[in-house]
Amino acid sequence: MKVSEAVGRRMSVRAFIDTPVPTETIRRLLIAAARAPSGGNLQPWQVAILNETRMAEFKVLMERRLAGEPHPGGEPPEYPVYPSNLFEPYRTRRLAVAEEMYGLLGIERADRAARLRWFANNFRFFGAPAAIFCFVDRRMGAAQWSDLGMFLQTFMLLAQEAGIDTCPQECWSQYPRTVADFCTMPAELLLFCGVAIGHRDPAAPVNRLQSSRADPAEWLRVV
I need a labelling partner for 140 at 20 to 30 A (CA). Which of 26, 43, 118, 205 fits? Predict the structure, then answer.
């Protein structure tokens, strides 16, 4: 598979089948992805793999969280995923993709309860059999967060080459202590995101979602 083909095929899959992905395969792809660019070669990522028995145990724990059982010490969100007052054109782009997704799911705009029920599937990894969590030292800055993005994109493209689908999930910032404790990560590490890993369900309507991209005239200039 060419890189351009992997870029075109990669999508945020929101419905997976239960076909397992070997831990060693995920490990191999992560090690290959570590060749991603990194300013000053800091390589700031710290990664935990969830699979098989441990994934099943974590999903049980998350069902308790979703049912209202809090972390014993409380857990405020790690960071805001979006600016508090999202402005244009970014607000419109976000709303448009949400409307398209809920349209495919047959969920009405006014049905807030149904939307929240669907959103909870994030915390079940949309049925994926495996996942990773990506952490970074809290002392790192914005430049190192960009390194995480390049590392994760490289991983997701390599996964496509291997016939494996993914869904990056910043929603996990809502449960940072639950995740960190389960993964036995030290307090100095910040949870950046999770990535669901598996094989897309071709019959699921939500997997027909192909998010649009802005006209290059909006963001590209030659100087």
Answer: 26
